[in-house]
Amino acid sequence: MAFATQFELLDLKCHANKKFDCGNNEMNQFLRRYADKNRKLGLSSTWVLSEQDNDASEQKLKLAAYYTLASSTVKQIEIPHDKKLPVYPVPALLLARIAVSKHYQKQGLGKKTLITALRKAAELTEKGLPALGVILDVLDNDALSFYQTFDDFRPFSNNPMRLFISMNVIKQLG
To answer: Is residue 18 one of the residues assigned to a domain?
Structure first.
């Protein structure tokens, strides 16, 4: 199956978000019920990757993967960072959601989605949104194993299910 050439912001007029199934009900429900509402409220933005070869009878594009980014602030003492930082909370981006359709899992699309989300975070900071790095809350042990294959994620605070990657490292990903 071929995919669209790039991720794009979720648009309920053309994306079949209600049919997406990654095998996790919470992640499916977020995309189906809350992603667009959160965008309208200014809380987060969700980008989707659609299938390129949709059935002609389908009116909306089927989705292969999605990710959601949101702004956040974090306490300086929680950040695994070497620089001297102010004692007040500093800006960061939150990779709030990342999911791949069951049809495309274990085929490298998760890695592509993660890299795309991190590049989007870097792009947003280049355009003026300040962020020291990206924080992500890991859903479960399978997801933790996936993130641990990347050497650049470091534990955030004392919670092993919360990870951090600095914006400087992200920008080096190319």
So the answer is: yes
